[in-house]
Here is the input.
Amino acid sequence: MKIFCCLFALASAAPTKTGSFVDDDEKSIMCGGIITDNGIITSPGFDDQGHYFNNINCSWEVNIAGVSGFMIIPEVFEVEHDDNMPRAAGESMKCELDSLSINWQEKNELKIGDDSGPDEFNYKFCSSDIEEVGSYTTEAYESGRQTQKPWHTFLFDWSTTVAPNGKIKESSSNNLKRRDQQEKQEIPSSYGIHRTYIGDFIAPVQIKGNSATIKFTTDSSVVLRGFKLRIEKGVPEKRK
Here is the structure.
């Protein structure tokens, strides 16, 4: 098992979400690492200081060989509240202050004549001051179709793509977009899908595949308890 930096053991129960303003004139915080097996990721200062720090930029690369998927489970997640709070009806969270992001790609099994690119997932998390419970899945949508699985609605905004029962928005490179504008044609779905989620981290994220990038960035003011994420690998990948 190779787990470097900021992969740590059990932590005590987290306090309530009460932020504090901290003026950090400390040396640069070293954080991030590589995860190749089951493990724990915590924000810098989670165990010893009881809070994270200002002006940090951490990146963890998850690369677990031989599995078809893994889970990222938030055991503790308390970062600066969303900057778009309180929100008016219909408004979404922005998470433009302190935030945790998870990015990964999923590629379905290739078929003859299939030149499609991978589906790209970009999840961004920050804390909300609204009490939230729920779950989400990366498999809630299929390309060009409406939701095929039961959708559970809650009192907060989240979606792997758009609003429930909506259709997936297709995306592509700038070149394809320019060509699309010139030809006034829709971009083919074979160019891949861009799926996003912005909100609180209140339920496990299921990753299809064996790799992902986890990033944590903070601004220069409020700090909170931080996060503790458990990485739990799934079933072994089937041999062909």
About this structure: Residues 174-183 form the longest helix (10 residues).
